[in-house]
Amino acid sequence: MSALQKIIKPAGVAADEVELTVAQALFDLETSVADLRKELRPLQFSAAKEVEVGSGKKAIVIFVPVPLLKSFHKIQQRLTRELEKKFSDRHVVFVAQRRIMRKPTRRSRQQQKRPRSRTLTAVHDSILEDLVYPTEIVGKRTRVQVDGQKIIKVFLDNKDAGSIDYKLGSFSQVYKKLTGKEVVFDFPATQGEGL
């Protein structure tokens, strides 16, 4: 078994340098860490991208096939920690590889109704949830500024504030790169803080 078997690509499409590095890192973890071996063996990813998140830092976005997402979620915290050790100056984020279907028109010949999970809004919401996993989103506000620019303010669960606080800037840059929407992550103020 080699590192190339960790990447699922259509026939004739070659993997780039970032994907090969991530595949090698996953393969190394599978062979070296005994308690992750059983969970990592069946897991594969479809793509990996490097995203600039400002101030010279980068984040690696690993795209996972949707059927394998639940399996990745089982070990995601541990896997993210191990991969961030290997890629010392980069944050690692797992996102499901979802497809957006276009809106049906009179001229399009579609046999079936478009599923709700393939709409643009549903896919963007799912990407947002994938980015911040295992933290839960407890609230969302869309703020429209005077010039017409929309900013989405996302409130995350306070119990995970210490563990992902340093990644919030990376989350917003990755989301902007994937969807083109501005987003600000925050933790809601508790009752005692506002006084």
Order of helices and strands: HHEEHEHEEHHE
| Main β-sheet description | 3 strands, mixed
Assembly type of the shown chains?
single chain
The radius of gyration computed from the alpha-carbon positions, rounded to a whole number of angstroms, is 19 Å
Shape: globular
Number of extended strands: 6
What class, by secondary structure content?
Answer: alpha/beta
Helix content: 25-40%
Strand content: 15-25%
Number of helices: 6
Strand order of the largest sheet: 1-2-3
Low-confidence stretches: none
Ends apart, CA distance between termini: 59 Å
| Mean pLDDT rating | 83
Give an account of the 3D structure:
The chain is an alpha/beta fold and 195 residues long. The protein has helices spanning 17-32, 34-40, 69-86, 120-132, 161-164, 168-179; strands at residues 47-54, 57-65, 90-97, 137-144, 150-156, 182-186. Helix 1 (17-32) packs across helix 2 and helix 4 (120-132) runs antiparallel to helix 6. The radius of gyration is 19 Å and the shape is globular. The N and C termini lie far apart (59 Å). The mean pLDDT is 83.
